[in-house]
Structure formats: structure tokens, C-alpha cells
What we know:
With 253 residues, the chain is of the alpha+beta class. It is built from seven helices and eleven strands. Strands 6, 7, 8, 9, 10 and 11 form a six-stranded antiparallel sheet that branches. A five-stranded mixed sheet has the order 1-3-5-4-2, sandwiched between helices. It is elongated, with a radius of gyration of 33 Å.
Amino acid sequence: MMRIFLILLFVMLAVACSKPVVKEPVPDKPVIATPTVSVPEQDNPYTRTYTPRELHGVKLSPSSATPKIYKGVAETEDYQRMLREGYEMLGYSRFEAGDILPSKALAQASQVKAEAVVVYTQRLASPTAAMKMQQIREQARHPENAAQSAEIYSYFATYWAKLLPPVLGVHVMKPRNDDANPGLTVLAVIAGSPAEKAGIVVGDILIALAAQRLKSPEQLQQVTQQHAGQPIEVTFRRVNLEKMVSVNLNPVP
Length: 253
């Protein structure tokens, strides 16, 4: 009897062991990896060193376009060209570091709602101790970049937004306190503007608009707004000659 019981027990165990093991089903598609955490602003040197400019009520054209990045060549000439093409500088970033991806400049441009960013880079011949220490900190925060070049560069970036169609179309510099000659020096004339059509050029000194003597850029803006859409007389000085021209101002956009 005992023998028959043992035989039945062995048969039952054998049947139990022969059943397949149930496993988790294999997914049809690869599992999507968790998105990487966005880089904090403090890790972007363009953001960390950004300095905004005071715009004094300048009206900018709204834009949702992706910013464009340009390689700077000559700061003064590039600055004049951007002003002439109807851009206003929003601010700038300046720092010294190793290799920095252009995407970081574009990220800062998007953050300040700029339409363009112009980046200047220059390799520094002999990095200072402070610059080397900064590079060590950057590599500690981003070990994946440790194999990059040990060269140190000077970075300078300017951020630009397009202006609304200008009423007059000049960029001016306010007079110095010790300047005996009154007026506002023209730094740039926007292409196609009423000022360009009237023959005003860079270097002219605006003395009066509509018989009102000009003492500041803010006053120039106020007078042009008051007479927008109207013809007015502009008095200016070129070299040592004082001239007067009629300018048909654009309406306020």
C-alpha cells in the first residue's frame, strides 16, 4: 500500500514540474526612456551673465519665430548693421569658458524673446588661474564634457528684436554734460525710414524737430509721437553747417 502511495506522489510531482513558468509579456515596442531633466538656468553661462538694456519705451514687433544665431565679425560694424536693418539690442552676455554649445546661446535668445543673437568668440592665449578654476567646476558639473578641448575662449553675445515700423527712424546718442554744442548725434538711420528718405545720415546732429530744441532721446521720441503721420521740419548740423529738411513722419504703428 505504501509503495502504491509513493508511486502516485512521484507522478503528481512530475506533472506539476512539467507546467510552463508564466512570464511577463514582452512589449511590442521599446520602452520610451524618461525625458532628461532640463538644464537649470544657472548652468547656462549666457543666462548667468546676461545684462538687459534699458529700452526707454521702445516698441518692439511681437514675434514667435525661432531665433537665428549669427557669427559676429566686427562688433562696431555689426552693431551699426543691425540698427540699420531695424533691430534693437535687448541685452548682452559676456564670459570666459571652454567649449560652449551654440544651442545655449539660442536658449537664452528664446528666453528674452530675441529674434537674433550674434556671438563673438576669441581664443585666449594664456588663461588665468580663475578661468582654469571655472573650467574645473564646469567639468565637475558636466563630466561628459571632460574630454573636450582645454582651450579657454572669450564669449560675447548680443540679443536683438525687430522694431515696429519707426515714426522717424534714427538711433541717437544723448549729448555729454560737457558738450557745448546742443543736439543729438545720429548713430544709425533705419533703412527705408522717413529719416533716410529725407537725407539724414550717420554723424548728423539733430538740433530741433518742429521748432522744439532737442535735449534728450526721450524728448525726441515724445516729439515724433506728437507729430506722427505729419510732415515736420527737422533742423540738424552736419560738420559745421546747419541745415533744415522736411520729413514726412510715419503714423504710430
